């Protein structure tokens, strides 16, 4: 092993020496080349750790009845991408050729002459009761198989999902709601519903995910008729958590792939 390491280091020094000799610079020594190699390796590892510790950010907003979201990584917007519109100038020659082609197609597709025999399609009519029973049995079978597959998926991926939820951070939560109605009584009832719904949802979500609230403003407009709902928040997912949870979820699905993607036949029973 020592001989192999020494030979590899000497080869690196010889290569660096030949490159520097061609460039007209003095050849570096063996220690300088090794130090340079470790510096480059440290920079690569540092960049890798920075990428793992950085987070993918999802910004969600619902303002004045319009839903919007964007996905960011560092300062780059991954989605939605900005579309570049290109102006197309229509040439008169292309439009004329398209018109000629359309006219030729219409001439070729002429109606068929009368007197041709038409094929009659016969359908086998069975009892409607049997059809309804079979369709009902198929629906029940689909519901049962879907429920079983969902149970298998949740059982095999619970570790990855738990890892993902523990790493999620919901911050910059801003909620601005103005409750209104046809009269003051309805506005007051809607105001109470909004308070109960918002704070109970936040309390329940905090048992699974860390939430950082910036502002919550719930008001009641006794004279207005239209209610306003403005909500925005951002979700941060570290890249390390995303990769580890993805690996755990993928491995769980792979181990139970036969139960999840397998097809089960319908058991035929006498009707």
Provide a quick synopsis of the model.
It is built from seven helices and six strands, in the order ααβββααβαββαα. The protein has helices spanning 2-23, 30-53, 92-108, 128-167, 184-205, 239-255, 257-261, and strands at 55-63, 66-73, 76-79, 169-179, 210-220, 228-238.
Largest sheet: 6 strands, mixed
Strand fraction equals 15-25%
Q: What is the quaternary state of this protein?
A: single chain
In spatial order, strands of the major sheet run 3-2-1-6-4-5
Distance between the termini: 77 Å
Structural class: alpha+beta
Q: What is the overall silhouette?
A: extended
Q: How many strands appear in the DSSP assignment? A: 6
Whole-number average pLDDT?
78
Helix content: 40-55%
Unreliable segments (pLDDT under 50, ≥5 consecutive)? 1-7, 113-119, 121-125
What is the number of helices? 7
């Amino acid at each position: 092993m020592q001989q192999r390491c020494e030979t590899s280091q000497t080869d690196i020094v010889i290569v660096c020496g030949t490159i520097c000799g061609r460039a007209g610079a003095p050849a570096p020594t063996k220690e300088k080349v090794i130090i340079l190699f470790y510096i480059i390796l440290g920079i690569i590892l540092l960049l890798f750790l920075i990428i793992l510790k950085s987070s993918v950010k999802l910004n969600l907003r619902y303002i004045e009845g319009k839903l919007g979201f964007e996905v960011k990584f560092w300062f780059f917007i991954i989605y939605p991408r900005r579309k570049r519109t290109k102006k197309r100038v229509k040439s008169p020659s292309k439009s004329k050729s398209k018109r000629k082609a359309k006219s030729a197609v219409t001439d070729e597709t002429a109606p068929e002459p009368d007197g041709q025999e038409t094929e009659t399609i016969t359908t086998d009519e069975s009892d409607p009761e049997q059809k309804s029973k079979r369709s009902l049995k198929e629906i029940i079978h689909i519901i049962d198989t879907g429920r079983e597959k969902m149970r298998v998926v949740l059982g095999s991926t619970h570790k990855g999902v738990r890892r993902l939820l523990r790493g999620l951070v919901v911050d910059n939560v801003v909620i601005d709601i103005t409750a209104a109605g046809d009269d003051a009584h309805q506005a007051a009832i809607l105001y109470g519903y909004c308070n109960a719904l918002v704070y109970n949802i936040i309390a329940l979500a905090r048992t699974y995910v860390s939430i950082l609230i910036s502002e919550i403003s719930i008001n009641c407009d006794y004279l207005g008729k239209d209610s306003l709902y403005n909500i925005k928040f951002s979700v941060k997912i570290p890249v390390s958590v995303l990769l580890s949870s993805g690996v755990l979820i993928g491995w769980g699905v792979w181990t139970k792939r036969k139960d999840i993607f397998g097809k089960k036949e319908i058991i035929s029973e006498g009707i």
